[in-house]
Amino acid sequence: MIRKAVLIFPDIPVLHGGKKGEWIVTDAAGIKIEAISGETLAALGIFIIPQGILFCNRRKEQQGLSRKSFRQFPAQNVIRPDTASPDVLSGKFWAQMCTTWQQRGFDSSYMTCLPSQLGGPQFSSAYPTGYGLANTTVELIKGHSPDKPLREIRFLLAALGNVGRNTIKVLTRDFGVSPQNIVAFDPTAYACHTARTEYGLTNVYQLSNHSFYADVLPQMEFDVWVNNGMGDDTTPQQIERLLQSGVWLFCGAANNFLEVKTAPQSLSKIFDAGAWAWPDEAASGGGWTLAVIDLYRRCQGLSADDLETGELILNTIATRNRNLVRAVLDGSAGAKSTGRAVWQRVNQLIADRVEQTTAGSLPAETLLEQANVRNWPI
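^ that's the sequence the OP posted. Answer follows.
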């Protein structure tokens, strides 16, 4: 998460230690139990997560005391070091989990992405993630092909989960992309039906990655490929087919939007063909930004479910992502850049910011001043 944090908030170092844990259940030997339902995970999480969060925060309070940083975490204007947040294993149960915790008296300052009905932002994290991805994609298109109207760009979207559908929503509503210029596929009937009925897409295929790339893609032409799927599943062979269909920009919010073990081969194919690729970790950061600003508002005693907070979240995401793309392109010859140069530049920028953070330290006497959200440049 530090790589994402330094991209969105490079000037707030106390946020750079953020991390996202995965909620898993293991057996007595520490081996992950695979055959366990989401409902069971959520039920166990309702009981166990609060205890774990409280334990982690108490431990860090003790560390602060031993280092003479502070005696206890301030009651206001400071975000707690460890908080509970939704992930792929608990997301669809998150509202129910938070409601149960609130009914049992668990302090909501220990929860990020609080549902709107409980005082959190007016939208879930999938919307700002899709919002950030759409803004990043459009900025990359402008950088690569500044003379080509956006209305002529042909998009292929892999996966139509909440992030994918929100990406379509922002592309069509905010940027004027015609639904006829978007082709999408997903293996689930519900996701495909929603894309057709809510966003007016006519070219939607209920197919798996393998089936779409093998059977449908060869008859089509595209400019931009956006992967919002589970990740770690796009192979060099599929990249080759995408290149043959005309794709010159590869991006997406999926974690590891290329198959990890073959990513070097896929990137080589992309760069050798003169196309661009943009790292998934730099594509949005929308959900993480929502979590930060949600707590940023609530720890000050302010409302997080109002229009002002929603605008702050979206404006932060759009501005930071567009500025990142511009910084990369300005440092690598803009539209004349090679795909390899763009990829290397963005990764070098991330690495430089991470090194700057990890090489520094905060004196104990200034730690509370740095942690006070009222001093943050948001």
